[in-house]
Amino acid sequence: MIGLVDCDLGNLRSVANALDCLGQDVSVLTTPAGFDDCSHLILPGVGSFAVASARLRDRGLAAAIQAFARSGRPVLGICLGMQLLAESGEEGGTNPGLGLVSGTVVRFDSKHVPMIPHVGWNDVHFNRAHPLLTGVKDGVDVYFVHSYYLPANEAQVLGEADCGQRFAAIVARDNIGGCQFHPEKSQANGLRMLENFCDWNGQC
Amino acid sequence: MASNPVSSVPPTTHDRHGLRRCLRCGLPETYETIEFDPSGVCNICRQKEYKDGQVKWDDRKLTLDAMVEEYRGKTDYDCVVPFSGGKDSAFTLWYLVTQFKLKPLVVQFDHGFMRPTLRANNERTFKRLGVDVISFTPNWKLVKRVMLEALIRKGDFCWHCHTGIFSYPMHIALRYQTPLVFWGEPSSEYTAYYDYKDDQIEEVDETRFNRFINLGITAEDMAGMIKHDFDFDFRDLKPFTYPSLRELKKLKVRSVCLGSYIPWDVKKQVEIIERELGWKGDQVEGMPWELYNYEKIECSMQGVRDYIKFLKRGYSRVTQMTALDLRNERITKPEAERLVNEFEGRKPPSLQLFLDYIGVSETQFNDIVRKTVVPPHQPDFVGMSEAPKTWDFDRWYREPTPGRA
Question: What pTM value is reported for the model?
Answer without folding.
Answer: 0.88
